[in-house]
Amino acid sequence: MIDQTYRYLDTEADRQRLLADIREVRHTVVQMIEHVPEDQWYEPRYHGWSLAGMLGHLQFMDSANLLLIKVGLLGISIPIPTQTLNSFNNFLSRVFQKRIVKTSIQGIQRREVPLEEFIMNLPIDKFTRQVFYPPMGKNLTVEQAVQVLFLHHWQEHLQTMQEVEGIQPRDSSLN
Questions:
Q1: Which domains does the chain have, with CATH numbers?
Q2: What is the pTM for the complete model shown?
Q3: What is the chain's Cα-based Rg?
Q4: Which among 150, 114, 144 has a CA at the least distance from the CA of 129?
């Protein structure tokens, strides 16, 4: 089970600890290519998602989620119906099923620094702004959304991948 305890991100040290966990989970997800034979990267493995699809999804969702939080910072919370989210995810699983794995990994790595800069520069006085999170069907604060979208989301997918591949997690903080 993923520990979805929310942290306070008031200090630079708080944010650095969050970024360390984000880096760790991303590194572990990317390392999954070492556990799945290359000829199986494009076959559905994880609830209908291929390894290529999962990596493409995570890369894409980083951009979409960053936009969602930026809109929330402006005071706009967009309630996306669960059915719309599910249809969109089903569509993405087909789109990303054959995405070139190395391209997704490069995209994930390329977004690390901008994401870290965004988190480090978030204004504390905007932390209580609302961001609608469709999987939970509720609003989160910006402070919570950063953690859910860039850490917990990745942890959940990593856990699924590890279970399917029979891999025991090395670090319980990732689960």
A1: 12-165 (1.20.120.450)
A2: 0.93
A3: 16
A4: 144
Residue 92, both tokens:
């993405």
Q: Tens of pLDDT along 81-99? A: 989 999 999 999 999 999 9
Q: Which amino acid would we find at residue 50?
A: S
CA-nearest of 152, 163, 145 to 2 is 152
Instruction: Tell which residue, 47, 148, 41, 46, has the closest CA to residue 98.
Output: 41
| Per-residue pLDDT at 71 | 96
| Proportion of the chain above pLDDT 70, given as a percent | 97
69 burial via Cβ count (<10 Å: 0-12, 13-18, 19+): buried
- Taking a C-beta distance cutoff of 8 angstroms, is the pair 142, 126 a contact? yes
